[in-house]
Amino acid sequence: MLGVETRFMIKDMYRKGISISEIARQTGHDRKTVRKVINGDLQPKRKESQQPRFRKIEPYTEYLQRRMTEGVYNTRKLYREIQTQGYPGGLTQVILYVQPFRPPRQEQATVRFETEPGQQAQVDWGSCGYLDDEERHQTLYCFVMTLGWSRMMYVEFTPEGDTSSFIRCHQHAFEYLGGVPREVLHDNLKSAVIDRDADGTIHFNTQYLDFALAMGFTPHPHQPYRPQTKGKVENGVRYVKGNFWVGLHFIDVDDINHQARVWLDTVANPRVHGTTGETPFSRLPDEHLQPLPGQRFDTSRISYRQVGRDCLVNYQRNRYSVPVAYTQQTVMVKETEDQQIVLVSATGEVIAEHPLLHGRYQSSVDPLHYAGLPDPLPHRGRKPLAFQTAGDADDTFGRWIAPQVEQRSLHIYEQVLEGSHD
After folding, report:
1. What is the pTM of this model?
2. Cα-based distances in Å from 103 to 45, 89, 239
3. What's the average model confidence in pLDDT over 373-379?
4. How many CB atoms lie within 10 A of CB 182?
5. What DSSP character marks residue 242?
6. Distances (CA, A) of 130 to 66, 111, 242, 253
7. Is the confidence at residue 44, as pLDDT, over 70?
8. What is the reported pLDDT for 393?
């Protein structure tokens, strides 16, 4: 008895105008059989006494339905997921089950533009919803880089959309790919392009240009309103959102990026690419990328703050101490990639280093920064309030900066109030 897939193929061939004799020759079935299939139903009627056939996918249809409500229609992704649950069947059953529920796609024709090995990488920098972290509602950004020739891909997610994060993602991508292409094609985003004149003159972000010069690539913003010039990475973004991101469950950004790295190494880059017919991993050695520079580019976030009279610098709602000699001076604050805060004086001297504090309204204090300050004089038995620091401050330091409030018994205030009514 012919299966549903074979019946569909025969009917489809006949619908396209292929003769019964030719269908019989191509499929290896008798012409009477072919004619019977063409004139019959796709799914033959079962005899009343015949028990319905058990399908291997049946125990997993509830899970597939739930994943499709989450927007997951990629059958290879679903196939991998139910395989881990013990599904013994093949990919075909998953495709046939999902196909009726898949929303229709509309594609526009474009001209494919191929590049030479090592010539170009394409970059896209977009958002993937929001992330609630430490009581903050942040946009979650997705960085995708795709090498034009091998189709090797790198993906990274970050809650920061500034130029430093954009550059860091580039650097991580080059390290993952093992080298640097000769040019990078990207959007006209502010992290790379400050402005574009009417005559086409491009004004680049100077920090990004410094990075490009240090790494040895030429940036190329694509022509506005012509996204097809960046088609490879646009396809890559669609692939990331459809195969990795959709239906993803995660704890935080670190967890997302860990899962993304596993996905890159086990799914995206070992797959046979639909255009090249080869895996990106197998083509990467022939990209002949430029070698990475010997020294990593400094991707620290730079800002400037004035030191308060309490020798503390406010940065992202937390406070960091500096030596007393720099009170009320303007200093440079560098937030490094390894989560350190480096404070630099106007002359370029590093005057303090602290671990980056997470959360809000915390303090990282080095008691030595207050050395030489006089001990405040005692005043009518005042006791200093507690001052919480990231380090172990001595008692002299605590008495110096803590606001002092005289504490009285409540009955004193009651006597004052009674006297005011006399």
Report:
1. 0.61
2. 29, 24, 16
3. 58
4. 16
5. I
6. 22, 34, 18, 11
7. no
8. 41
